[in-house]
Amino acid sequence: MQFRNTLILFLLIFFSKLSLAQTNELYLLDSSAFAALESNAPDITEQANVLLEAGKKANAPIQQINAYTILGIVNKNKGYYVTAVEFYNKALEVAESANDIGRISACYNNIGTVYQIQENYSKALSYFQQSLDLEEQLENPLQKSIRLFNIGDMYREMDSLSLALINFNSSLLIEKEHRNNEGIVYALLGIADVYLRLDRNTDASLTLEEVDRYINANDPETQILQDLHYAELYRKQGKFDKALAAIKKARLTSKKYDFKVHQSDILEKEIAINEAAERVSKKKPKREDSFLSKWFVPIVIVISLIFFSAAKVIGTRQKSKEAAKHKELKKTSSKIHLFELKNDAGKLLLQIEMSKIIAFEANDNYVITYYLSENNELQKSLQRTSLKKVEELISDDKQRFFRVHKSYIINKRYVHSIGGKSQAYKVQMQFIKEAMPVSRSFDIEQISA
């Protein structure tokens, strides 16, 4: 839902074009820098710095603020969050010196979005609230709505769901009053998500149906978010086929528009649905045999008497066999190596026999674990962690696990074949359809022997 925050960026563009007092050269530099940002041009940073120097030379605060904002966005998109905040703070200093309340508010909001990405929700909430306080002084209700939505988003992440619902509804009222369909859709999606977390499935269903009246068929993000919400609704209702169909639709939309922001969410939701379906299938009661049900107790009594009599004859021999068997089981169990992944609080997230693990794959801030079930069927588990942490956990098993690529660790035992040339090897693992790339620096002989 970060797309809504780009509205603030375009508001800056709008105000810049209204500043007719600036020279034509500054106006052209300003427009060129924003165009480079919108098109993700390779020289964005260079153009922003040129705009910044020109703005300083002409003592033009608006151009300086815009340049610092662009540099902040570029660094945020690259994952350089500390640098991004530094640029946003520089923009804030200029805006405060110029007493430009609108841009001060925008700077607070921009800083909040960085802390939101870093999952520092309390700090993000503080900046969003400061931005809202300023928007209360201005006559721009749609910007106020965005701040309300962002605050609701933070309360949702902090599990303060009643406060989240209040802020989402406040945003919705403003968006409906101004007939802004895009804002209406985001507010409704936020409300639907809160209802799902509260297990108010009927309310969530009605809210998602209302989204259909306002949603833009050409907006991939809102389509994906709606399908993800439907998938969660169907999962809660036990309609797993419909839930997986919604996930498939979200994935197709993501692929069609090359919109990758929510790919990890799609995969995580798909895994959760499959796991829920598996749990339900295991809990289904089996049909009782009427004959066994009727004669179960008498049969048990007869068998018990037979065994009691036999035990007198073979008691000593049976005890020795039991002891030997127990000793062997204990010896065997001690040889089983387990992979255990815990979060920072020490909660166990994943526990699998090392011998069942096929590979690990890094996916943004998550790691996908490919492993075999007890029935030797391929399973996938998505956990929020890093491949580096996984590598540390399996460091004692260097004879079996190899980091063949910056994004992949494989179990040599499951290597099916190795293809490609020396500069672009790929390894095909058993049970997994897609081949995995091998880094040029990796010694392929380690897994081909």
The helical percent reads 55-70%
Give the overall shape.
globular
- Under CATH, the topology of the domain at 1-138 can be stated as Serine Threonine Protein Phosphatase 5, Tetratricopeptide repeat
Separation, N- and C-terminal Cα atoms? 48 Å
Largest sheet: 5 strands, antiparallel
Instruction: Provide the succession of SSEs.
Output: HHHHHHHHHHHHHHHEEEEEHEEEEEH
> How confident overall, as mean pLDDT?
85
Walk me through the structure:
- With 449 residues, the chain is an alpha+beta fold.
- Among the domains are: 1-138, Tetratricopeptide repeat domain (Serine Threonine Protein Phosphatase 5, Tetratricopeptide repeat); 339-448, LytTr DNA-binding domain (OB fold (Dihydrolipoamide Acetyltransferase, E2P), Beta Barrel), CATH 2.40.50.1020.
- The chain has helices at residues 6-18, 24-38, 44-57, 61-78, 81-97, 101-117, 121-135, 141-157, 161-177, 181-197, 201-211, 220-236, 240-256, 263-283, 290-333, 387-393, 445-448, and strands spanning 338-342, 348-353, 357-363, 366-372, 378-383, 401-405, 408-411, 415-419, 426-429, 436-437.
- Strand 6 (401-405) and strand 7 (408-411) form a beta hairpin.
- The longest helix has 44 residues, at 290-333.
- It starts with 5 loop residues before the first helix and ends with a helix.
